[in-house]
Specification:
24% of the residues lie in helices and 28% in strands. It is built from 8 helices and 16 strands. Strands 6, 7, 8, 9, 10, 11, 12, 13, 14, 15 and 16 form an 11-stranded mixed beta sheet that branches. Strands 1-2-5-3-4 form a 5-stranded antiparallel beta sheet. A hairpin with a 3-residue loop joins strand 10 and strand 11. Helix 1 crosses helix 2 and helix 7 packs antiparallel against helix 8. It is globular and about 65 Å long. The protein starts with a strand and ends with a helix.
């Protein structure tokens, strides 16, 4: 447990904590505190961490369940979001909204550790410094996000009236969103393992459905976890588009809800984590006998989660027109798929 008040962060050590203070605190402090383990280590050394009113200055100190630590935080500082000339691929733009095809590697909005070089910085430049401010100072006009290393479509409000309407559509889950992903293995209704996995079911046409609650992981604040009590309701569906000899698959995923890391964590829960995903993909390796040396190499070297926001549809917040946009796969995912396809074909010819 943790809570922040008057620049004091109170952390209660839970069951089965990490074996040393810095690790235990890093796992428990809330994400909004933006405290890395290295920063926590410095704060411990500086005497900013106390237990029972006394500073604890040894980062390797043992901790015990139930102990309460108080961390004195630096006073909050205001970060001015500056306009930056960063190239953007604009799919649609009018007076009220803009649809961007975001490249992998671009952070959507400023945050500690990524205070500039973001999509918001680029949009401020694109609009001459003016955006809808209803979303707050840190991310004006942003009504939804995609992860830094996910590519694809994103809609941003340019006016307050558009922001209100788009936010309502996302809250009602009426926005049409499809993602293309390359995953380990091939989801199949015939797989008895999947049939026995809680939260996993299949619908007509072999469509995989994952239903659960999602919440921040108990010991790793950077991850989301599948749970079945508490948390936030989440539903993901997926359909196999192409099977790479049983070793991997291109899948079309669509969201009934939109939670942080939803597709990544749900596909991993089903045993089909995304290729290249450093957080949920695990250490699985493809088999050379199934996709050849080139396929194994391409998958092993893929530098990000193989996930692309390919389709985005919504009702225009002012005109009422139904809009739908599509984005082609980026070059890196095209190359990955081509290598898997060629490797699978060659391996199949030899069998």
């Amino acid at each position: 447990m943790s809570g922040i008040s008057e620049n004091i962060l109170r952390v209660t050590i839970g069951e089965a904590p990490a074996d040393r203070l810095d690790k235990a605190l890093a796992a428990l402090v809330p994400e909004e505190a933006a405290l890395s383990r290295s920063r926590l280590a410095r704060m411990i050394a500086e005497g900013a961490v106390r237990r029972d009113g006394q500073p604890v200055t040894d980062q390797k100190a043992k901790v015990a369940e139930g102990e309460v630590y108080e961390i004195t935080l630096d006073p909050p500082r205001t970060v001015e979001t500056v306009a930056q000339d960063i190239p953007l691929t604009v799919v649609w733009e009018d007076e009220d909204l803009i649809v961007i095809d975001k490249p992998a590697g671009l952070v959507v909005h400023p945050a500690p550790g990524s205070e500039d070089g973001t999509l918001v910085n680029a949009l401020l430049h694109h609009f001459g410094g003016h955006l809808s401010g209803i979303g707050g100072e840190a991310r004006p006009g942003i009504v939804h996000r995609i992860d830094k290393d996910t590519s694809g479509l994103l809609v941003v409000a340019k006016s307050d009236r558009a922001h209100h309407s788009l936010a309502r559509q996302f809250e009602k889950h009426s926005v049409h969103r499809h993602y293309l992903a390359v995953v380990h293995g091939v989801p199949s209704a015939a797989d008895p393992r999947l049939r026995g996995t809680r939260g996993v079911s299949f619908e007509l046409g072999g469509i995989l459905k994952v239903t659960s609650q999602l919440a921040r992981h108990k010991t790793d604040r950077q991850r989301q976890a599948v749970i079945f009590e508490g948390g936030r309701h989440a539903i993901t569906r997926a359909r196999v588009v192409e099977d790479f000899n049983g070793a991997a698959a291109l899948v079309d995923c669509w969201l009934e809800t939109g939670r942080t890391h939803q597709i990544r964590v749900h596909m991993a829960h089903a045993g089909h984590g995304l290729i290249g995903d450093p957080t949920y993909g695990g250490r699985r390796k493809l088999q050379t006998k199934l996709v050849g040396e080139a396929g194994v190499t391409a998958a092993g070297a893929f530098p990000r989660q193989a996930l692309h926001a390919a389709t985005l549809g919504f009702v225009h917040p002012v005109t009422g027109e139904e809009l739908e946009f599509s984005s082609p796969l980026p070059a890196d995912m095209e190359a990955l798929i081509a290598a898997l396809r060629a490797g699978a074909a060659a391996a199949g010819a030899h069998n």
